[in-house]
Task: inverse folding
């Protein structure tokens, strides 16, 4: 899961990057409204964590612009103001959820998973395809009732493919989801992850669509 | 509480009363004069008529005076009484209602006298040819009654109309004051949060100044509340964000098995604690300044010495004009020190690494100037940066948003002023402190 974090405080932003990483997500950090707009215009994110008070304006303005432009990316607002009226303003402004500072890192991760899941149109937290079950909260996978040990990247690739079974995901799309801006991506990284996944969950679960990308094989 | 309606009503009532009273007095006077004139003419005519009727056949000296009968009278009738006397003083004839006593003296013309307790007005005609003196008189009481009846005739309808007039006045005032009631009702109906201006579009010109003043006041209150809300919002943000950072980093340190990640988180925690410590220190300085009594009579202090104390000369890129060591000002040393220290920290924080911070005297030798080579402050942000917790667009990672607010409060405390603007040579901020009364600066 790739998340855009818009937070100007360097320590909190670093904490969110590392903390959300521990929860299995890839977080990109921006510190201003301007950078956030640029990031949203050029990249796809599964969720946005948006601080309300930013140096060059209000996060609520960014949110309104996103919604006005038809961008339905789920947004969780972070703010120091926790009066009911502020919460109402944020939610009515197009936010999907709201957390006031200081917050619990695990709760933040759970809420991000929830809004991303709802945005994907899924009601259950678990991803299921045939005998394969993925739990995004615990970062665990099970095949026919047996636990399968997956690395963080492998889990991310598999969950991306399972989120919308039957949809072909290109290599670029998968890389985008897996790696943040600062990370070096080796050219065959995705192939390696898929190869390792096939070794763990079976050769025929992930189908290679030549020239286009990968998808979950239907009927598995 | 005085009611405008009651006040207007009483004023109108009083004014109407005075006008009515004046009118009544005037009518009374005029009517009286007219009535007297008419009745006097009648007396005169009657006397002359009687005289012309007295023929030579009147007995020269009757044993008994002739009584001219008259019918029973009612109301204003039987006004006139008539006596005919011979010139030598014998009563020749009289009308039936006339008193026995001679009505008037021998002088011809009008006379007034009291006969049997009643006041009479008499007209006397002497007729030397016929040897008679005719006296015709009427009672003044009857005249007064006539005028009183006339006035009563005027007053009764007036008294009947008075309550009606009062009612109409009361209702009309109510209608006239309706715009005021409308505004009152509109204000009463508002909740405390509603600071929208009241509608002056239909307000009459008399109320508009009040409405305009009220709107101006509402705008001021709204602006003050907005600023208070902003400060609260900034404060909440600046205080809670470091706590959120601390909590997140702590949770990371507890959750991870990776020693590198844990070490990173702990370092961030340490940095955050340092930063938060500075924030708390700044808050305490501000609280002390807010609570400080009016500064005691100050002694002359050397600006250079204070700068030395706060370490402004320590760093290699800090340049202090030697003239500042000779520059002495009269100010509370501690508070001036707080202002200078915060200006210095602000300049160091916002300047680039290795960027110079220059302390100098202003060109007129009265202001203390510090310049940095940082990004400066945009013109639109200049009024805002003095607000508590406001951190501009070019914020430094260790800033608390309180530095310039502290300088602002401290300078105000010692009667000085803070001027902010762009540096003349190249980018950067120029801050100048100077006493409001220039006489405080003693150049030695």
Result:
């Amino acid at each position: 899961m790739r998340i855009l974090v818009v937070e100007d405080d360097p320590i909190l932003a670093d904490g969110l990057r590392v903390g959300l990483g521990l929860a299995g997500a890839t977080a990109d950090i921006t510190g201003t409204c301007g950078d956030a707009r640029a990031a949203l215009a050029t990249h796809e994110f599964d969720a946005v964590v948006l601080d309300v008070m930013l140096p060059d304006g209000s996060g609520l303005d960014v949110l309104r612009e996103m919604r006005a432009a038809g961008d339905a990316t789920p947004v969780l607002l972070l703010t120091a103001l926790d009066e009911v009226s502020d919460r109402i303003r944020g939610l009515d402004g197009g936010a999907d959820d709201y957390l006031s500072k200081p917050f619990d890192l695990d709760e933040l991760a759970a809420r991000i998973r929830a809004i991303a899941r709802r945005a994907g149109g899924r009601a259950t937290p678990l991803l299921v395809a045939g005998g394969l079950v993925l739990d995004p909260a615990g970062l665990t996978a099970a095949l026919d009732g047996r636990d399968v040990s997956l690395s963080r990247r492998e889990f991310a690739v598999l969950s991306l493919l399972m989120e919308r079974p039957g949809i072909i995901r290109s290599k670029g799309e998968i890389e985008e989801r897996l790696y943040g801006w600062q990370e070096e991506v080796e050219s065959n990284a995705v192939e390696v992850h898929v190869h390792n996944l096939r070794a763990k969950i079976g050769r025929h679960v992930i189908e290679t669509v030549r020239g286009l990308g990968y998808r979950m094989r239907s009927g598995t | 509480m005085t009611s405008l309606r009651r006040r207007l009503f009483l004023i109108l009532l009083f004014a109407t009363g005075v006008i009515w009273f004046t009118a009544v007095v005037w009518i009374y006077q005029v009517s009286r004069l007219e009535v007297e004139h008419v009745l006097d003419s009648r007396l005169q005519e009657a006397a002359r008529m009687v005289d012309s009727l007295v023929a030579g056949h009147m007995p020269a000296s009757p044993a008994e005076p002739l009584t001219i009968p008259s019918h029973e009278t009612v109301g204003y009738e039987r006004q006139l009484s008539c006596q005919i006397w011979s010139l030598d003083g014998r009563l020749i004839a009289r009308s039936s209602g006339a008193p026995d006593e001679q009505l008037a003296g021998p002088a011809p013309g009008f006379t007034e006298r009291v006969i049997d307790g009643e006041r009479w007005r008499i007209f006397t005609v002497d007729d030397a040819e016929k040897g008679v003196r005719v006296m015709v008189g009427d009672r003044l009481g009857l005249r007064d009654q006539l005028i009183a009846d006339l006035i009563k005739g005027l007053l009764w309808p007036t008294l009947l109309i008075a309550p009606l007039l009062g009612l109409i006045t009361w209702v009309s005032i109510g209608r006239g004051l309706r715009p005021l009631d409308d505004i009152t009702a509109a204000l009463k109906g508002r909740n405390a949060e509603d600071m929208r201006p009241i509608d002056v579009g239909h307000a009459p010109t008399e109320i508009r100044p009040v409405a305009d003043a009220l709107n101006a006041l509402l705008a001021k209150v709204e602006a003050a509340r907005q600023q208070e809300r902003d400060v609260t919002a900034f404060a909440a943000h600046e205080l809670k964000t470091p706590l959120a950072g601390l909590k997140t980093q702590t949770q990371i340190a507890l959750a991870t098995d990776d020693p590198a990640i844990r070490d990173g988180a702990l370092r961030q925690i340490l940095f955050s604690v340092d930063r938060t410590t500075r924030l708390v220190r700044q808050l305490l300085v501000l609280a002390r300044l807010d609570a400080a009594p009016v500064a005691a009579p100050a002694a002359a202090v050397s600006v250079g010495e204070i700068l030395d104390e706060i370490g402004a000369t320590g760093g290699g890129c800090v340049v202090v004009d030697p003239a500042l060591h000779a520059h002495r000002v009269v100010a509370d040393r501690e508070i001036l020190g707080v202002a200078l220290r915060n200006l210095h920290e602000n300049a160091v924080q916002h300047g680039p690494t290795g960027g110079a911070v220059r302390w100098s005297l202003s060109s007129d030798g009265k202001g203390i100037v510090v310049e940095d080579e940082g990004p400066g402050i945009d013109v639109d942000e200049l009024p805002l940066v003095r607000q508590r917790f406001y951190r501009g667009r070019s914020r430094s990672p260790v800033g608390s948003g309180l530095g310039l607010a502290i300088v602002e409060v401290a300078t105000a405390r010692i009667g000085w002023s803070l001027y902010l603007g762009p540096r003349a040579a190249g980018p950067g901020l120029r801050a100048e402190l100077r006493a409001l009364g220039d006489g405080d600066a003693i150049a030695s």
Summary: Residues 4-69+76-167 of chain B form a domain with the Beta-Lactamase fold (CATH 3.30.450). Residues 286 and 406 of chain B are 6 Å apart (CA to CA). Chain B touches chain A through 33 residues (CB under 8 Å).
